[in-house]
Structures are given as C-alpha cells and as structure tokens.
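I'll show a record.
***
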Amino acid sequence: MLGPRVWSSVRQGLSRALSSTVGGWASGEGRKVDISGIYPPVTTPFTATAEVDYGKLEENLHKLSTFPFRGFVVQGSNGEFPFLTSSERLEVVSRVRQALPRDKLLLAGSGCESTQATVEMTVSMAQVGADAAMVVTPCYYHGRMNSAALIHHYTKVADLSPIPVVLYSVPANTGLDLPVDAVVTLSKHPNIVGIKDSGGDVTRIGLIVHKTRRQDFQVLAGSAGFLLASYAVGAVGGVCALANVLGAQVCQLERLCLTGQWEDAQKLQHRLIEPNTARSTLSQHLKRGKSEIFRPLCGRKLSSRYFLFPSSFPPYSGFREMLRLLEHDGGQAWEEAC
C-alpha cells in the first residue's frame, strides 16, 4: 500500500505535473514539456568492494557537463538499475541533481515490475530532484504484457506521477517491445511526453512519429547507431550511450541533422557506427569486471556488482584507434586511413 506521506506527495505534485509549466520548464499554453536533445545515459561507478562510488559519479558528471547535452538519463540500462537497492537508486538521482546545473534536464529511470512500486519510485525520484521519469516496460510476466495491460500500467503511473513520464522500450533487455498501438493511446495522456525507443527499428520509430503527430509527443532514439535515421523520420533527440565517450561527436551529429546538413551528417554517422558497436561490446565486458579497458577513455572507475566472473575479451586496439582519430580531428584521419 502507498503510505500517507507518499499519497500526500502524489496529490501535491499531480497538479504541478499537469500544468503548462512543469519543473520550471515553460513549454507554452497547453503544451507538454520539451525533451528534445541529446542525453548520455549515465553509468553507475562501483568501488572494488561493489559499493556505489559517488565520488567517481560526480567526477564523471563534471566532465560530461562540458558538452552541450540537453540533460542526462540516470538509472537506465547503462546505470545497471536492477542491481541497486531502492535507497541507492534514489541517492544516485539526488547526487546527480546536486551536481548538475539547473538548466540540464534529469530523466530518471523509475520503472519497477509492479504499478504500485513504480508509482512510489517515481514520486520518490521527483522528491530528490528528477525532472521527468523514464519508465521501462515491466517484463517478468512478459507473456501477459499485452497492449491493454501496458496501457493500464502506464496510465496509472502517469495519473499519479508529479513529474512528466517518458515511456521506455528496450526489447534487448526486456524481451518486450511496447506495442505501437499502446504508444499511440498513451501519447494522448497529458502527463506522458514521449518515448525512448531502443529497439533500433527505424520503420517503427517513423510509424510512432506519424501516428502521434497530432499529439504533443516526442520520440528519442535509444542509440547513436541509428540517430541520423531517427532524426530523418521525425525523432527529436537521442539517449546515446556513446555520448559518454564521444560527446562532442554525438552533439555534432545532432547539430548537422537539425540544420539540414544531411551529407555531412551521413559521413559522421558512418564514422560513429563502429565505435558505437564496439562500445556495446565493451560495455558487456565491463559488466564482467573488465573495467581496466574503459578507465583511461572515460575517466571512471568501474567494477560491476554482480557480473564478476571470468570471460574472454575481444581485441580492442581498433576501438582505441578509432577513438583516438575521432577525438584528434573529427574523423578526417580515420576517413583517409579507411
């Protein structure tokens, strides 16, 4: 059951969430909050004893804040939220909010398996500074998670959330794609502002944009690997793990797309595909205790909490070389080398 204090927060916050100005972002009369832009999904650093390393977290944020990101995503897949306690999840959000300038949006992953737990986590995250809640699809009983069940879940969460809600579909991790018909229905909710779609199906992203075009609903690509294609079909930004490593390049790709410089954007997108793929591969090995590879690249000390078992590690010299060339001169030397 939701406790009295939580229900009080829900009642007090709901009117703020449904007003035309939410969390201090004026978005126009009757319009939803603007979430367009690039967001790096922040990692959760751990110490050698598997405790959350808040010092390294703040150090990473200070480095990332030098780039023109719209904001940051905390407690997404990249932040390993399933392996944190509830109190750790809230403390991470609180620390990130304290470290960020107020003009940077903080999207916090508040999804849990039950609707009640998701509402409680969302309310609590709002209390510690989240500007919007990114809610992943519940998936343990994924065979029963049809459109009707998901619409019911998200509607209840959005009804009771004191901050705007962003839908989060990541089938690689959940085994579940949020159905397009459910997204279309949920886009009409006044407190649901958009979706982060990490499936990589650009046709689906374009269809969502098309079918929600009469709603004030925004689509964020879930990877730098298909960022250009997503912009081309109407997405407004991206939550890109590669931005943790190549923030300047991902923001440059955004700028090229927004200014219609499609030929240059295509060239840069091509250069980012291999580093993005390598980053995905290295991330899996990082979560198996292979943090020594990423430490010089990201300036972060990582030790994943539950994946400390031996694993083979692929060659990474090409990854380092690509990063060196990209950081050195925007990719011209890489292009010549290829």
